[in-house]
Amino acid sequence: MKQLRLLVPANDEHFDESAYLRANPDVAQAVAAGILASGREHFELFGRNEGRSQRLAVPQEWKAAKLAHIRSCLSRPAAARCGTGLIDCLDHDLRERWGVVATENVSAHEYDSRALALIERHRKGWVLDCGAGLRNTYYAHVVNAEIVEYDSTDILAIAERLPFRDACFDAVLSLNVLEHVKDPFAAARELIRVLRPGGELLCVAPFLQPLHGYPHHYFNMTREGLASLFAALSDHRFEIYGAMHPVWAMQWFLARYSQGLPQAQRQRFEAMTVSQLLAPAAQLELDEIATELDEACRTELASAHALHARKPQ
Description:
By secondary structure, the protein is α/β, with parallel strands linked by helices. The chain is built from 14 helices and 11 strands. The protein has a 7-stranded mixed sheet with strand order 4-5-9-8-6-10-11. It has a two-stranded antiparallel sheet with strand order 1-7. Helix 1 packs across helix 2. The N and C termini lie far apart (61 Å).
């Protein structure tokens, strides 16, 4: 299986200035502002001891081979625009309709063991990673589709209107993406459409997670909701493993709740026992650990939202 690790430790033997700046945007900003003469200077002063990384460039021959294959899979190749190392299928109308906006948020996750196993099983075929984010390992047979132009992105496209022909992928990955698309039903239909008969899907979608945006966060879903999106597929099998375990959700909620409190109440909150937090919610709602929670945190962790609206005349 042909793959290349893009994010690697920086060291004296293989130090690369441009790769170091790609991996360390804070250093790049300091160099641009004239605070530092170069990335090498930062590495000598701080980076070596801090264990900083550098980010390699994807080899041009890898990109060229993959983009040639992608072009052969496009339903409307004439409408696609070839950019620097990627194919752009996002026109103005698509961006407007589906809420694609510029964002400085970076979505970057490593593949978990199940995703890696799927990529390995289909090493002789083609895998679509829909909403790939910034990938630290680049695979020659995995097509990274995104709305953000990361260096690992192969094609700019939206999940609700994938630019590919029917049945052109042996497997499809959708990992922590469907909560960020405006129409998850349309996105699911597209993922099914581009999957060949007998092809394999791995989809991970959040249920209990706070609000987070790359750049938007529209929907969380239950197991039944996820099943309904992919009802046309067979052999459904659900798992809860790794970061999907409830303890991750509990810790995320508690940590974010603590961050939303002023210092005095934060210390009180963090000193409370589980038994104290299990007091009647109607009672806790009147406590300062609830009344002094900041508005941003209330929105991120709200139990529900009430919408008041009026139909236009």
